[in-house]
Design a protein that fits this description.
Distance between the termini: 99 Å
Radius of gyration: 35 Å
Strand order of the largest sheet: 1-2-6-5-4-3
Strand content: 15-25%
Number of helices: 4
Number of strands: 6
CATH class of one domain: Alpha Beta
CATH superfamily of one domain: Outer membrane protein assembly factor BamC
Shape: elongated
Helix content: 25-40%
Order of helices and strands: HEEHEEHEEH
Oligomer: single chain
CATH architecture of one domain: 2-Layer Sandwich
């Protein structure tokens, strides 16, 4: 008797569930049967209805990070401690690392040329706008002691030698100095920090 009762209850439940499914009818959403109506006609003398104006969010274009910039750690140049007391300091922007100089672009262009020549670099092309092209050869480490030679597991310092170009951009009354490769592409963070750090000591 109980088994018959359970069977009847299960059958009633199945009927109730399946009756809500599309198996027992064509229960299509209402929007499938909807049709597009003609545009609304506004009587003469009345204004057209105005809808909400969409908000346009403008985002400045940013260059894609490359090289060591993809590492999950902030660049060292974000530290600007003591920048009020110096004429040149390292900073960071969407375009990469740069050297901020508290001077006009014309003056910085001239000072950069002297900094290149007085830093042991080879000035290959000078430009009045500050787009100087130069060759830099990183000095080799003089730490060649006994313990340094046997410490083979230590990572060798990166060599940032190469041909570079400087790119100056006005920033109010100051000037940003970016470092580019000779082909015009942005230099990586480590290379920019290294070479621009030399200029910072000369211009600071």
């Amino acid at each position: 008797m109980m088994i018959s009762f359970y069977r009847t209850a299960i059958a009633l439940i199945l009927v109730a569930v399946l009756s809500g499914c599309s198996w027992f009818g064509k229960n299509e959403p209402e929007y499938l049967a909807s049709a597009e109506d003609k545009p609304l006609k506004i009587p003469q003398g009345l204004d057209d209805p105005t809808g909400t104006t969409p908000v346009i969010i403008a985002v400045p274009q940013m260059r894609k990070p490359a090289g060591d910039e993809l590492e999950p750690k902030p660049p060292r140049v974000v530290s600007t401690a003591g920048k009020q007391d110096t004429n040149a300091y390292m900073a960071w922007s969407a375009e990469g690392a740069y050297l901020m100089v508290k001077d006009t672009p014309e003056s910085v262009a001239r000072r950069l040329r002297f900094a290149i020549e007085n830093s042991g670099m080879t000035l290959m092309q000078r430009d009045e706008s500050g787009a100087h092209k130069f060759q830099y050869t990183q000095p080799k480490s003089t730490n060649t002691g006994f313990f340094s030679r046997i410490a083979f597991w230590r990572r060798k310092p990166a060599d940032h030698s190469g041909t570079f170009m400087t790119n100056l951009k006005a920033d109010g009354e100051n000037t940003r100095v970016y470092l580019l490769f000779s082909n015009g592409e942005s230099c990586d963070t480590a290379g920019s920090e290294h070479v621009l750090g030399i200029f910072m000591e000369r211009l600071g």
